[in-house]
Design goal:
single chain; two-stranded antiparallel ribbon; mainly beta; 5 helices
């Protein structure tokens, strides 16, 4: 068995992700969330807690205060951004080499060995250096393992630094040295762009982070890019089976932007080519305290490069003390969208939510047992992240 694998960029992306009760609505990550009967939640992650369907935390988030200060506490005009809704290709490159699995193999001596596991390496470790050299790609990592009897690995695990010395053993079949570790240096998929700030040339997308499909952890990135994408087909969602968008990267048009941050509440960066940005009219920002339960609409891209407007209902709004991807529960009510997708499908994460002509949030998750419903994030949480981009 090989102890490493190269993650190739694929043009046609079909996302098949397993989950328990709820899926994130993007072809990049499966954020598992317990859906309890009705609107009751165990806990609104990082935010207010619900008990007997009543919100018992009423604090305004720091991000809401931040936006109010920006809009009211200065002579600047009201903040406006362009709501997008277009499908984008996302390419991310890890800040080091990510360990996604450990393996055993038979050596040329006939022994079953697992050198990496034996030395203390764990799934989810981020390898920053090998034999004192910064790890830039998989090829460099493999070269060092194959051409040495042992390797010194500088690893980051849960924010702490560790050093491991690992023996390299010759594998029985191909006669090459290996350490028994599966690694990854990149990932790719399709999601939806939420907004573009013309003033700062920054963008926000997805509404939740990109996690590794094996470790389920948010991927620490070195850099990344977004580029155009076109939707080729839709797999309709049904109860118990989430749907998905299938699309293709438009690589020939070049990069749209550079990804600077992969956070738990989305990806953020700067635009380098605004010619391919959707030319929607800029809208004002609606903070969480302005959101009302009732009618709203989303902008999303389910066919080719066409962004359309679809009616939804905001069914529940949650109070939050901090940033969360689950600020509100939404329901798709648009008959046209329901007939084509069955509701929210993977790939729609980041679709902007607009109410009373203001951008108030973005779609983040779908309920597997009811694909017409899902979660949305408050837009101030996403905008706050762009303010920290240098």
């Amino acid at each position: 068995m090989q102890s490493y694998k190269k993650i190739f960029m694929i043009i046609l992306i079909t996302v098949l992700i397993s989950s328990i009760l709820a899926f994130s609505a993007v072809g990049l990550i499966n954020d598992k969330i317990d859906e309890i009967s009705g609107f009751e939640l165990e806990e609104a992650a990082n935010g207010g807690v619900l008990k007997n369907n009543k919100i018992i935390s009423q604090n305004i988030s720091e991000n809401t205060k931040f936006l109010k200060t920006k809009n009211e506490g200065s002579s600047k005009k009201e903040k406006k951004v362009i709501p997008c809704g277009n499908a984008i290709g996302v390419k991310l490159f890890t800040d080091g080499i990510l360990v996604v699995g450990l393996s055993e193999f038979h050596t040329d001596e006939g022994k079953l060995e697992a050198p990496a596991k034996k030395s203390g390496i764990k799934k989810g470790d981020l390898i920053k250096k090998i034999n004192g050299k910064t790890v830039n790609n998989l090829e460099d990592f493999v070269y060092e393992c194959e051409n040495n009897n042992s390797v010194k690995l500088d690893v980051v695990r849960n924010g702490k630094k560790y050093v491991f010395n690992v023996e390299c053993k010759k594998e029985k079949n191909d006669k090459k040295n290996k350490i028994g570790v599966w690694v990854r240096d990149s990932t790719a998929g399709i999601g939806t762009m939420t907004f573009y700030d013309c003033e700062t040339k920054t963008f926000g997308a997805l509404g939740h982070g990109v996690a590794d499909t094996d470790t389920k952890d948010i991927i620490p990135i070195k850099d990344g890019t977004i580029l155009g994408a076109t939707i080729l087909s839709v797999k309709k969602g049904e109860k118990g089976t989430p749907g998905e968008l299938e699309g293709m990267f438009l690589s020939s048009r070049g990069d749209i932007g550079k990804i600077k941050k992969n956070t738990s509440i989305g990806i953020y960066g700067t635009i380098v080519n605004d010619k391919n940005i959707i030319k929607n009219k800029p809208v004002s920002i609606g903070t969480s305290d302005e959101i009302k339960e009732g009618k709203a609409y989303i902008l999303t891209n389910i066919c080719a490069e066409n962004v359309e407007k679809y009616e939804i209902e905001i069914q529940k709004k949650f109070s939050q003390n901090g940033a969360s991807t689950k600020g509100m529960i939404i329901k798709i009510t648009d008959k046209k969208l329901l007939s084509k997708t069955g509701g929210i499908v993977q790939g729609m994460s980041g679709s902007p939510i607009i109410q009373n002509d203001k951008l108030v949030g973005a779609v983040t998750h779908v309920f597997v047992n009811d694909p017409t419903r899902g979660y949305g994030i408050f837009i101030e949480n996403m905008l706050y992240e762009t303010e920290k981009i240098k």
